[in-house]
Write a structure and sequence with these properties.
Elements: E1 11-14, E2 20-24, E3 35-38, H1 41-49, H2 56-71, H3 79-94, H4 101-116, H5 123-152, E4 161-164, H6 179-188, E5 194-198, H7 205-216, E6 221-224, H8 229-234, E7 240-243, E8 247-249, E9 254-255, H9 260-269, E10 274-276, E11 283-284, H10 301-304, E12 305-306, E13 309-310
Parallel strand pairs: 4-5, 4-7, 5-6, 7-10, 8-11
Antiparallel strand pairs: 1-2, 2-3, 8-9, 12-13
Helix pairs in contact: 1-2, 2-3, 2-4, 2-5, 3-4, 4-5, 5-6
Length: 319
Amino acid sequence: MTLSSEELATLRWIGGVDGYLDLIDQTRLPTEFVRVPCRDVETVWEAIKTLRVRGAPAIGVAAAYGVCLGLQQVAAATQKAFFNRLDEVIDYLASSRPTAVNLFWAMERLRRLAHQRRGRRAPGALLADLLAEARVIHEEDRQMCRSIGEHGSALLADGQGVLTHCNAGALATSDYGTALAVIYTAVASGKRIHVFADETRPLLQGARLTAWELQQRGIPVTLICDNMAAQVMREGRVQAVVVGADRIAANGDVANKIGTYKLAVCAQANGIPCYAVSPTSTIDLTLAHGDEIPIEERAAEEVTIINGAPIAPTKMTIY
């Protein structure tokens, strides 16, 4: 199955102020390609929480559109009702996933805009303004992906093997991706790049998403077990590690998918550069260092159950 660029769009807004958010259900890949219409803020919250949409930049864009969906019901209400609902919707969406700072950044950007125009614009006009701003955030993310690719591709040389973790490609953003944008742009410039994608337990984003995405774009890719990463480095198959980031503290500490730290340590031990690739919206200057980054704790069943079948003893402690 090969899909067009439009079909591969991770998320898109359909219609005007009374429209809806349409996104790829990433939990169904690679065996099924399904798009999910999100017509209310609750569906957006569920999509973010359950990883139907994931990746820090994509979560930020989805949240911005989610705010607009949540305000549709008060477009004809009073100023007070509109702003009460605005705070309610933002607080609600903020509870979906705590680590990706883009989620909070995008929503606070909409909140600031609304308050700047409070009293000068009717609620319906404010909703139109916020939707326009959400579209700007979406387009900025597209341009960011291209810019990251252009700058980062210089880090890769012709004939190199590149190891990546989780999924930091088009599925995680509005366009090319962050980490994978570096690879896509390098390949587009004529460089021969072979990607090693680790499976990324427990939810297998590397196997389900990155391997699928790279195949769709015709990029040579080898899928490896997570515990194979150090070995392919030792064998000289990998010359660079390129990963994304969920949040970056003021001192440069990076939070990303679990397992990223292990790759960085292994890369250092083997003399291989490890690059964390992100937009500036992922940098959180309010946090001095990585210990202050809130880390999401997910359900134990994501480790103990695969495709509905238990793979560990019952009543097992999971960390």
